[in-house]
Amino acid sequence: MTSTMSDYLDLAGQLMMVRLFGTELDADTDAFLRTHKIGGVCLFRQNMVDADQLTRFTGALAGAIGPRALVALDQEGGAVVRSTWVPAPPSAMALGAANDPQLAREVGAAVARAVRALGFNWNFAPVLDLNNNPHNPVIAERSFGADPLLATRLALAWMEGSESEGVACCVKHFPGHGDTHVDSHRDLPRVDKPREELERFEFAPFRIAARAATPAPAVMTAHIVYPALDPVNPATMSRAILTGVLREEFGYDGVIITDGMDMHAIAHRYGAGQAAVNALAAGADMVMAIGTRDTQIETVHAIAGAIRDGVLPLPDVEAKLARLGKLADAHPARAVAYAREQDDRALMARAWRAGLTALGQPQRPARGSRVRLVARADVVSDGIAEAGVPAERIAQALGILYDVDLVTFADSESFDWSVLPQDGRFTILASTSRRRYGPNARAGWRPDLHLALWNPYQALDFPAPALMSYGFAAPALEAAVAWLAGEIDAPGTCPVPGFERQ
Question: What is the DSSP secondary-structure string of 83-114?
Fold first, then answer.
């Protein structure tokens, strides 16, 4: 039987996950998904209003795609969550600081219960990157830590919890994004390490997850060049890495999906269609085509042409579809009732408290003290993380305990730190963004207490005692206030190097 271009387009669409641009399934998008047989969708914060809207939306999407629909989101925990009204999970590094696999399993299960109730069957979490670079602009607290065995033990427990509630996980970003100075959303990073060092560090958690008794069901690729493995191609488009290392050396037979192909590391160097073909030829099973509708159409036609021309051999395509089908069959995309929401809120609060970490013997101001809170006025979303907590909200929380004078800044490098009064108030710096402080802020200024409410590495920017929460979600701020009130201790141990003065 002779195949037509229409047949190739049907196959191509099933190898794609796309981004959508609204909060309801409009007729045009419905037709696009059905016509091109699109295999999956990934939703972001701008696609979400509330539980009723989102459940209706995911149900309509699953209906349009069919019984093997893959409906995905990034609900890692900490700052990287998309549904912000469900119980707020701690970041991976908060769980790393707690170092309790059973707690990690319970958190993974609770995250899955929340997102499955909203109609999702695939969560792009947990992060398996090992963060040992204090200047990493994109991973930091998203990592469980720097020790391969600790990080993998916690990640596997988290995944076990998610799987127990019917939601597939996806470990990321293979073969490791933890030791980079560049965010692949902005440019193309390089990890220029010898193969032996990659084996000991970056590879280790992915190798363990690939060979576990219950392997990770999916792996997401990194848009990073590793010259020791492939001097030309980023991992997403490297056959030496995806097929040679992950498939052949690690023996992994689960789904491989690319990171977003609209990220600058890829989109600024390759055409959308050719990049997708390169990734599939390298060994990926699904391309995350989350650019515009035009680039999505370009991508499906490029993949179809590559199948027709034998660049993507039909037996390889069929193997990719079989892996994707197995994943979807094991995790149906249908919403279920969320019966344990209040229990899960209590669990998340307990987990945030378990990770709370003290650095340098911080002192609590006495209740009723005159306190000056210094914080960035507001933190907008950077497209990866959600918006940070506004300074006013922190001031309100501390106002329960203290007489608070709030001083805000828009940018720490342009702010004149010398204008802060020397009037005897106990000064608390609350850090609510991921970006490290620059030389202007660090030059000679020191708070009495540093509340590092996001990136723990910011606690290294000032020679001051610090309390680190690894995130700014409401239960994290509540944990910090409970510590200030003397109601709880800070039992966590920071799971990355550089914090020995604690």
Answer: --SS--PPPHHHHHHHT-HHHHHHHHHHHHHH
CB 148 within 8 A of CB 198: no
Place of tokens 């990890």: 191
Q: What are phi and psi of 58, to 5 degrees?
A: -65, -35
pLDDT for 255: 98
d(CA 88, CA 386): 12
Contact 72, 41 (CB under 8 A): yes
The Cα 379–Cα 391 span in angstroms is 9
Q: Please determine, for residue 2, whether its predicted confidence score (pLDDT) is greater than 70.
A: no
pLDDT value at residue 339: 92
CA distances, 313 to each of 108, 251, 306, 363 (Å): 38, 21, 8, 65
**Does residue 489 carry a catalytic annotation?**
no
CA distance 118 to 484: 36
Tokens of 252: 């992994």
Inter-residue contact 206 to 246 (CB < 8 Å): yes
Instruction: Please report the beta strands in 335-390, taking only residues with DSSP state E, as ranges in sequence order.
Output: 357-359, 370-376
Residue that is written with structure tokens 């390169």 in the block: 278
- Chain segment 374-385, per-residue pLDDT in tens: 999 988 776 678
What pLDDT score was predicted for residue 183? Answer: 46
Given the residues 7, 100, 185, 301, the one annotated as active site: 185
Q: Which of 259, 262, 344, 461 is catalytic?
A: 259
Residues 414-455: tens digit of each pLDDT: 999 999 999 999 999 999 988 899 999 999 799 999 999 999
> Is the CB of residue 46 less than 8 Å from the CB of residue 96?
no
Rg (CA), the chain: 23
DSSP letters, 387-441, are: PPPPHHHHHHHHTTTSEEEEEEES-TTTS-GGGS--SSPEEEEEE-SSSPP-HHH
- What does the pLDDT read at residue 291? 82
Residue 337 has pLDDT above 50, yes or no: yes
In degrees and rounded to multiples of 5, residue 357 shows phi and psi of -130, 135
Active site residue 301: no
At residue 184, does pLDDT exceed 50?
Answer: no
- Over residues 105-127, the mean pLDDT reads 98
Per the prediction, the chain carries an average pLDDT of 93
CB 449 within 8 A of CB 362: yes
- How far apart CA 216 and CA 55 sit, in angstroms, is 26
CB 336 within 8 Å of CB 36: no
- Quick one: DSSP state of residue 307? H
Q: In the beta sheet, which residues pair with residue 287?
A: 16
